[in-house]
Specification:
391 residues; six-stranded antiparallel β-sheet; binds guanosine-5'-diphosphate; binds manganese (II) ion
Length: 391
């Protein structure tokens, strides 16, 4: 789960990370009041769960409170398109009004998991700032990396080494060690999967400040962090993914045209691969769970049918514990509740597969039955092409 910049800064500040004062506003008038309270120059920043806001016109400097109101009016309600939002952009509902800081130099700092090493790792760069992706791709040697020892935890000497490699002076290195310790503590204590400060800056006076902040939390640990869970902004999430999570379906929206309904995450991954191999792309990942039944199949259909990208659906169920005839009954019943307006290819294998096939054939539903997975994939791809959809 992601949170907004203003929330990330509030959390990081509790761990001793220096941030400029600021508050969030959902109207231009409130933005003005906050700017008056802060005094002097402020920055008005669109709050969306995507970076690159600066490049998309979502970050504006204001000389005074009246100007802050004006800038907030321009940003609130805009559809912000940035390199990270995709072409559809995101509607801006809130702005963060924060004291403007004079920038000396911009750095990148990230704390994340290195899965290959199974360690928390620190990444930092004196070059890049907002162009960090470019640095990582073209001059990866300019990124400083250091691991957090899983037994000893964060060690100040590691922080000093990174700080010196960034070219910070001795006073700044000391500040940096404290800031980095705060980031690593936040990472572990809050069950984060990413703590990113981009840019971390030195001010004109040489002090370190987190100018931006991004926190990602491990969904599986949110039950331990009620206050964080309450920060969830469903307006920033894919509406179909929100609905799926309410129905306890594991669903991730993708950019292809074949809607998938599968039981088991491993089979769902294999199904997506074979669709790709057959020449189309999956519109989603969807694991209806081990006990696929009428309710879960109906909910799954409802989500797939609301996705305009879906040009055909492939149902791939392996009946291990779950019986295929039960699933077939579920499909028939669901088709009565949800109008299925695209071609449907069904592959049911395993326990009671023959009975399931008979049930589907007797149902009068317009669908194509397949036995083998490669055959199912070819049939659904043919259906997409016949429907005039691109791969
Ligand atoms: P992002 O584009 O979504 O990552 O948003 P950031 O918060 O990282 O801001 C992007 C850029 O806006 C920064 O790299 C800065 O150059 C500029 N910016 C943001 N806040 C301030 C500020 O307080 N003062 C100044 N001078 N520039 C700022
Ligand atoms: Mn940024």
């Amino acid at each position: 789960m992601n949170v907004h910049e203003y929330q990330a800064k509030e959390i990081l500040a509790r761990f001793g990370v220096p941030v400029a004062p600021g508050e969030v506003a959902d109207t231009p008038e409130k933005a003005r009041a906050i700017a008056e309270k802060i005094g002097g120059r402020v920055v008005v920043k669109a709050q969306i769960h995507a970076g690159g806001r600066g490049k998309g016109g979502g970050i504006k400097l204001a000389a005074n409170a009246a100007e802050a109101e004006e800038k907030a009016r321009a940003i609130l309600g805009m559809t912000l398109v940035s390199p990270q939002t995709g072409p559809r952009g995101r509607l801006v509902r809130k702005v963060f009004v924060t004291a403007a800081t004079d920038i000396g130099h911009e750095y990148y700092l990230g704390v994340l998991v290195d899965r290959a090493k199974a360690k928390i790792t620190i990444m930092a760069s004196a070059e890049g700032g907002v162009e960090i992706e470019k640095v990582a791709a073209e001059t990866p040697e300019k990124i400083v990396r250091a691991d957090v020892d899983p037994v000893a935890g964060f060690q100040p000497y590691v922080g000093r080494k990174v700080g010196r490699a960034l070219g910070l002076n001795p006073a700044q290195v000391k500040e940096f060690v404290g800031l980095l310790r705060g980031c690593v503590r936040c990472f572990t204590e809050m069950d984060a999967s990413l703590v990113e400060i981009n840019p971390l800056i030195t001010t004109a006076e040489g002090r370190l400040v987190a100018l931006d902040a991004k926190l990602t939390f491990d969904d599986n640990a949110l039950h331990r962090h009620e206050a964080v869970a309450a920060m969830r902004d469903e307006g920033e999430e894919d509406p179909l993914e929100v609905e799926a999570s309410r129905s306890e379906l594991n669903y991730i929206k993708l950019d292809g045209t074949v809607g998938c309904m599968v039981n088991g995450a491993g089979l769902a991954m294999a199904t997506m691969d074979i669709i790709d191999l057959a020449g189309s792309r999956p519109a989603n990942f969807l694991d209806v769970g081990g006990g696929a039944n009428k309710e879960s199949v109906t909910n799954a259909f409802r989500i797939l049918m609301r996705d305009p990208d879906v040009k055909a659906v492939l149902i791939n169920i392996f009946g291990g514990i779950v019986r295929c005839d039960r699933v077939a009954e579920g499909i028939v019943a669901a088709a009565k509740d949800v109008s299925i307006h695209v071609p449907l290819v069904v592959r049911l294998q395993g326990t009671n597969a023959a009975e399931a096939r008979q049930l589907l054939e007797a149902s009068g539903l317009k669908l194509t039955v397949a036995e083998r997975l490669d055959e199912a994939a070819k049939k659904v791809v043919a259906a997409v092409r016949a429907a005039g959809g691109a791969a």
